[in-house]
Model the fold of this input.
Amino acid sequence: MQLLENKVALITGGSRGIGEALVRKFASLGASVAFTYSSSSEKATALAASLAPAKVMAYQSDAASFTQAEQLVKKVLADFGKIDVLINNAGITRDTLMLRMTEEQWDEVIRVNLKSAFNLTKQVLKPMLGARAGSIINMTSVVGVFGNAGQANYAASKAGMIGFTKSIAKELGSRNIRCNAIAPGFIETDMTHALDDKTRELYFSSLAIKRFGTAEEVADLAAFLAGDTSKYITGQVISICGGLNM
Ligand code: NAP
Done:
């Protein structure tokens, strides 16, 4: 029996980067996967089709919208019958120094990165409570723990996600619903490719393991937290950062 056999996972932001690796890994470990994207329709459709015969379906849904989250979960339940695992992975950056940061840049990052976790978690709770089982995984960041100049909005959203994770774990542990956070360091994706050479070098020099991480490595950790071999783990923030010392 494979690690995620018979499980249904809902993954936000699955069209690229870490989310795409999550979709591929979960499908390869026997899960059925519903994943969302914001605008990459072609990429998302191709990804879902490439994983057949595994049941993988793509949904366009803005994670920042409460109404869209409500509609999405209804559709996923109709298509898959249940949701065992939720991964709040969708995220964006709008990096700039605090002096220059606009209200819009602040609000956008908080809505997409943090409010999204509330939106989706709220919607999956009923089915998970009914099943008396569930694993919720929130994609935070080492930046949410250490802070980072030029990322006050992003760091605040990721720190908020950590408080949210620990609270949900305490509220729902007695119902067998677990909630953990993954805090990646520097992982090679579109998000980090957008950084300039100076920032990349700064990260690189602070690494114990002298290479950047891969999305697949993050997906391996998520698969462990989603599966039953981690059933006594909840309320934790697990860093996957190559020993990054910020
Ligand atoms: P990425 O390559 O930029 O991919 C972002 C994904 O999120 C895409 O699938 C995108 O969809 C989706 N997305 C963006 N806004 C959305 C919205 N409003 N609603 C639904 N989906 C939305 O990012 P990544 O590097 O894989 O990061 C994934 C997560 O890991 C993020 O939460 C990020 O903060 C976190 N993280 C990343 C790193 C890193 O080093 N890469 C480090 C720490 C934490 P479209 O393709 O349609 O745009």
